[in-house]
Design goal:
- The structure is a single chain.
- By secondary structure, the chain is an alpha/beta fold.
- It has a single domain, classed as Transcription Regulator spoIIAA, CATH 3.30.750.
- The protein is built from five helices and five strands.
- It has a five-stranded mixed β-sheet, with helices on both faces.
- A hairpin with a 2-residue loop joins strand 1 and strand 2.
Length: about 120
Amino acid sequence: MSQILTAGTARVLVLDDGAPLSSTQDFLDVIGQLWGEAEPTSCVAIPVSRLAEEFFDLRTGLAGEALQKFVNYRVQVAVVGDVTRFVTASRALADFVRESNEGTHVWFVRDLAELRARLTA
């Protein structure tokens, strides 16, 4: 079951293990889940294990489409877990991860402790 984490003033929906998110609709369903929370939740933490392999192949467009939905709906998103094998295989993805981490809407973090630290900084 998903849980809510509080970090500073942010409420984060932490997705549990489950079926891989493999389509834009899957990500829209996550945004809908956020809106179903009793209190406003402006951030979602998605474990790497929940993301379909296609997400990490930028040529498929899944990451771009999905993450743009979060930005459009003003939801901050953090991909939580080790993405080393993916960024090692793709310079474009490595650049995407680095650039995302320099911004405020999409982050790739090692664990929830790193996310909490970024949200409270």
